[in-house]
């Protein structure tokens, strides 16, 4: 095992541009002991700052810098009706002075709420595609169509796929994994697992890439477990290991090994489908609110924590173990219709 600060690995990212939206490392909060005796820690990536925060800010640090390096004058992206990623892209565009176009599922509502309300407030233009929340293929085609229109208008669009899950975007969580390793080292803890909510896979790919860098440098590494909330991931798409390798190649670290079994996705907490609440997810939301004052949402982080709590109850960890939950955000959708469980 090595003893230097994991932060020395951040030099690996030096050749790639990054627009620093996040002012400092996000807090790693000590949570309660779980019934199994393991200690819960919460990495507060709901506090990434920009545009009400959440995981996508980390990806946007690299994506937006790439956009500017490519001379973009506008940003286009796509997501479900209550997309957090779209809302944070809208905020990034407003900071950088770039016009933002968002392709969203569904039809224009009579009154915008939650993430849509904020996206509009940040000045983004909303394009409603009429597609279902999980019709990713149709949504991506609509994004391409809007991108072509903007190109034809001379707006030099930088077009970001669903969830910002590209090799460039994934670098955000490779960096975050190193930030987290440093926090663990200074607290003197050696977590058994880092658990997070996974959907388009970029967060997961980044964490796996960061973990591979740490392992390559000789650090003991935790399991990285993604709790799936979309059937795309459940079916093995996107390929998280491949995306992690592509992210490493992007920073000339392609020689660092990523094994297929570095990627652990647990799809058993999705329920009926993406964005359809589950009893376990709602219970986790109430537990988090009443235990740590943490606000989770029904689409992502609530289901994610339900997976962690369910695995803990199943005996995966025991007294003396430390387990980290990455709180990836999702606050604004709590204020959309049916966005929070009551009582
Ligand atoms: C709150 C929240 N958590 C987790 C995720 C999943 O991240 P990824 O798409 O990188 O898998 C998202 C994606 O939109 C999200 O908004």
Structure overview:
This protein is of the alpha/beta class and 343 residues long. It has two domains: 6-55 and 166-335, Rossmann fold (3-Layer(aba) Sandwich), CATH 3.40.50; 56-164, Rossmann fold (3-Layer(aba) Sandwich). Helix content is 38%, strand content 15%. The strands form two sheets. Strands 1-2-10-7-8-9 form a six-stranded mixed β-sheet. A four-stranded parallel β-sheet has the order 5-4-3-6, with helices on both faces. Helix 3 links the parallel strand 4 and strand 5. Helix 1 (56-69) crosses helix 2, helix 1 (56-69) packs across helix 5 and helix 9 (279-292) packs across helix 10 (301-313). The longest helix is centred in the middle third of the chain and has 21 residues, at 167-187. It is globular and about 60 Å long. The mean pLDDT is 96. Bound molecules: pyridoxal-5'-phosphate. Pyridoxal-5'-phosphate is lined by residues 54-55, 84-85, 163, 165, 197-204, 300-301, 328-330.
